[in-house]
Write a structure and sequence with these properties.
The protein is α+β, with helices and mostly antiparallel strands and about 110 residues long. The chain has one domain: Orthogonal Bundle (Arc Repressor Mutant, subunit A). It is about 70% helix and about 15% strand. It is built from 5 helices and 3 strands. The chain has a 3-stranded antiparallel beta sheet. α1 (about 5-35) runs antiparallel to α4. The longest helix is centred in the first third of the chain and has 32 residues, at about 5-35. It is globular and about 55 Å long.
């Protein structure tokens, strides 16, 4: 293998390795987000559409501060997005596939 071919091979290997590392990180973030019962409740509640934080707190069973932390984790995992309207912040599920995952988990639990 000459220098240029080896260099291209090494570069390609490093790119693939970096992609795998990024995918592993995303996977860990999503699984972490789904692994908490409160976050699961929040996501299940949001399956029906966008909700204000003031609507999320009562169904969560935890304080507003705790809800905010959970929403941050869900947002950082790429599962939720938010928008501000005046003093209110609204959250919604980013990808319909998340709803499918939630439905599958609920289906498994019910069996």
């Amino acid at each position: 293998m000459n220098g240029k071919v080896k260099s291209n091979y090494t570069k390609k290997y490093m790119e693939i390795n970096e992609m795998n590392t990024q995918n592993e990180y995303k996977t860990r973030m999503i699984l972490k987000a789904l692994s908490d019962l409160t976050r699961f409740k929040i996501l299940t509640f949001l399956k029906n559409g966008e909700k204000c934080v003031c609507e999320i707190v009562p169904i969560s069973g935890v304080t507003q501060s705790a809800v905010s932390q959970h929403l941050k984790i869900l947002r950082e995992a790429g599962l939720l997005e938010n928008r501000r309207e005046g003093a209110s912040i609204y959250y919604k599920i980013v990808d319909e596939r998340i709803i499918k995952i939630l439905d599958l988990i609920e289906e498994i639990i019910e069996e």
